[in-house]
């Protein structure tokens, strides 16, 4: 048994008396208070239900039969956008079926007593002129309030407030994400050259008169000189240009991971450049690089769409089997709460779900999609919402450091940092706050890291997140009230080389009779505008071909 | 035993004088005017000692026990007196009453000690010897206290801890006496128990008095810190140097009582007097009530709504004596309604109520949080809340020290939709050259006369305020938006350059 020296006993009793006295006086900061037992919850989409379908669970035969003109399976942005489009075009009889209890997909959000917060997608960049449908949607929802000389006027509350971004590097917070410290002359030269090039590409048009890069990306130029970029990785592209700078590579890698959940060594150079060169959106009176964001992230857009489409939405419903004849499509749907199967008969079906899901709906479809499934992969993600009782002292501004910003990133870490959910609030003081922590699980091939992620315990997630955050915020566990962890097994389509302009993606665009597809995986990049475009496009096809 | 009691005479007198000095020093520290404070405190204290002495004639029975009991009481009352007064200062309406009550009680208790001691020792010494001995120890103790107090105690321990320390000494002497007397009676046990509890609480008080950290900041700011509190939102610090009371929020000076009339008259009257029917007035910020004091000078005003984030600010400026003297009890006026809320949130949630005159009296845009209150988005809310014939006025930092910052506010007001902008400035000695901007739908016509009771504003001074010399005239700036917070950047750069040069 360990014997205590007199000195230790004295120290311990002094500390105990001291903290007793001090705590009785309410002086919290002097009291040693280990805080490591806040609740950690693991949430996420319904893996169990999805895996029933994958593993050939024997669902009962249909016990209920329903009819609708258009059936949309999947209530993410693509499915909701398809519904929005149908509604605007005067189609009244349609339904949107969603596996979860809430629609929204990757753009879902949550709320607690402190704030709303995103569970995934959390911003949209200013829209290009070509991004017509998203613009129309933004006009409908009061996000674009008007135009000044053709330049959109955005609702000021939705533009990201200053300060926007900061990076923790060499034990300090700097403004902006491109590393500013520790650069050699050569680093600076390479960064400059890289941004000059992206600026050039941003304005560049191909032989067909289209922009080299735009959104929706299907409107981009097909000039072979640009499409060739899809054959190599972004990292290789930098090397080919002689750019070896470590800070530059870190930054470009960060951007690829942030937008695609894929490291730049696995991202197509076309997709990598698309990130930098496709955005030409402007806003009246505002810098063009700004973004639109909300405390609940893109959940704001979901809420607007949900309100608009409320009577058409049916939750807790999983499509399990599809069948089509020349005049109709039937879809068997598993009701997770009633535990029964409903058979929907429809003139037209939009599968607004990831392709790996739709391929499970019947064997013919599975065979048909085999080539596609071989070519596509999805990146797993973890998103954690961390509720803080107060803003950690280390997040406030020590002299010379950049202040707490909307987006806060750590240099060199495995995560993408955190976004402050309360940043967009009008109120001055925020004693409690929620931080949304993002981390693509791209350290292993997707199937392996997906498996690893699903087996992690809450404690393991907690340690991973705390280890990461404590680099910049060593005392953060003192402030944490809870951590909610959301696992996205198939978070985003990965734009690996050859995918965006290859055969597989081209094949994905084709409908199958009265079955249409709408999902951002058909674009190869997972952003709001693409999902919206795919939804609207599918709705237009349906109206043209099946409802006539 | 006789020696013990003589020693206690020494300690008693040291402690007694220390309490007297502490109370006097604390009163002059908090209230200013040290001659008055010291002489009244000493006077009251001595008079109370007289009462205490007189009352000893009614004390009978076991005198030694009574003596020890009083000693414990002196220790507790004296020991806690300065901490108590310091806390009361920020919370009671009539601080002086509290002060003299504390001084009187201490004095009475101390005054009872020597007569009791004389009676206890009367059988041990001859009368002439007794008086000589007791008073010798008494006066030597007084000398020691008067030397220790300014040279050692106040500089090293501060006033609050000094009181606690001497309270502790007092009680220790009492405990020693109990021990030596060695009686086992129940009364003794009770006194001893009380003494031990008293000792413990004084020790805790001594250790925890750091919490009243206001004194620690003295020296950083001009004058002495007389109030300091960190609220949920900011650090409020009030200093006094003679009759100059200064308020600092997060180390930024908000007013000096010597010249704040220049600032507040300029903030309010040119704008308020130029509105024909200024019935409903809104003040955002301005939790010190000075702007409201000026507004209430205008008889046409029927109601004033003040929205300030910090409840502690409006509380002290509603209830604390020396502060309500400064704002003429503005918050107790029946026309005034005080709301503690975030101005942005409040204004956004109240889009229908309209006002004739709106005053923005926020701290300078030194950080992104306050910067929000100077953006187009916020100014548009002001525009909505303003009657068509109304006017807003905004305190807008110094056009001389922070020229771009100042003009950025003016340009942002234009961008937010105000048709007529009137920039003006005034010299406030404690601030330097200071700027304001008015905005309205109707053009500004400088009033030809002003309400009574002003020290500074006349039609002539206002005319000069409208003129901007070329070292602070209009410069092009960005518009301050939530999205860019251009103003905070200007402000940081300009003030840090101004203060360095």
Please characterize this protein's 3D structure.
The complex is a heterodimer of chains A (548) and B (501). Chain A is an alpha/beta fold and 548 residues long. Chain A has helices at 6-24, 47-54, 77-88, 132-140, 185-203, 224-227, 234-240, 246-260, 269-277, 299-309, 355-358, 363-368, 370-375, 446-455, 458-469, 503-508, 528-545; strands at residues 40-43, 64-73, 94-97, 109-111, 116-118, 123-125, 144-148, 151-154, 165-169, 172-175, 291-293, 313-314, 317-324, 329-335, 340-351, 378-388, 407-410, 418-420, 433-440, 480-493, 515-517. Chain A contains 17 helices and 21 strands. In chain A, the strands form 5 sheets. Chain A has an 8-stranded mixed β-sheet with strand order 1-20-16-19-18-17-9-10. In chain A, strands 2, 3, 12, 13, 14, 15 and 21 form a 7-stranded mixed β-sheet that branches. Chain A has a two-stranded antiparallel ribbon with strand order 4-5. In chain A, strand 9 and strand 10 (172-175) form a beta hairpin. In chain A, helix 3 (77-88) packs across helix 10 and helix 3 packs across helix 17. In chain B, 54% of the residues lie in helices and 15% in strands. Chain B contains 17 helices and 11 strands. Chain B is elongated and about 95 Å long. Chain B has 501 residues and is an alpha/beta fold. Classes of the chains: A alpha/beta (548), B alpha/beta (501). Chain A binds chain B through residues 18, 21-22, 25, 27, 156-157, 159-163, 285-287, 290, 397, 403, 426-429, 431, and chain B through 204, 207-208, 211, 232-233, 309, 342-345, 348, 367-373, 375-377, 380, 415, 479, 481-485, 488.
